[in-house]
């Protein structure tokens, strides 16, 4: 049985956002059952957990003696068993992988620059000075993404892939992104209206409720 790690508790603003959601969603798309290993406060710093996840973060994926960290790597691994996530055709598969890496490498860091300021440092003087340029840079990337998406349904055409799964979870981090750009808003809706997303979200929120 696949096990993924997740937090037993997070502040309200993080519920529905914690990165195990991506992995739950991929598992739901693939129709693979899983259970969760819920970490209590401090568990992520214990040596046995650090041996699985050097940075003490969630999620960790475990199955049959394999343990993996980094959501991108985990979603790609799950995609090996799900053609809806990673098409079998070589070029389409490469494109799906490309968009997944772009989400994590070219978009997420710039969204996180702004999210961290807003969530944790909003009252700091340095954050007030830094925020406008962080927002400007993020918006440049988002505008480029929006142009690349154009009037396509998904990043690489008509079919949802692992690239869209990760990209849409990245774009959900800041609600202001959808408020600013109707094209990205519609794209996020198309991705997250998939039944597998609803099941994943409900499972994450359900774990928080049960652990409370
Ligand atoms: N790049 C990692 C990021 C994982 C991550 O940031 N996890 C957060 C929860 S959303 C976490 O565990 N934060 C606690 C910490 O960093 O100490 C991935 O995609 O798996």
A few lines on this structure:
This protein has 212 residues and is α+β, with helices and mostly antiparallel strands. The chain has helices at residues 20-30, 47-52, 71-79, 90-120, 125-149, 162-171, 175-180, 182-192, 195-211; strands at 2-7, 34-39, 60-63, 66-69.
Description:
One of its GO terms (molecular function) is transferase activity. InterPro entries: Glutathione-S-Trfase_C-like, Glutathione-S-Trfase_C_sf, Glutathione_S-Trfase, Glutathione_S-Trfase_N, GST_C, Thioredoxin-like_sf. With 212 residues, this protein is of the alpha+beta class. The protein has 2 domains: 2-84 and 196-211, 3-Layer(aba) Sandwich (Glutaredoxin); 90-194, Up-down Bundle (Glutathione S-transferase Yfyf (Class Pi), Chain A, domain 2). The protein contains 9 helices and 4 strands. The longest helix is centred in the middle third of the chain and has 31 residues, at 90-120. The mean pLDDT is 97. Glutathione binds at residues 18-19, 56-58, 70-71.
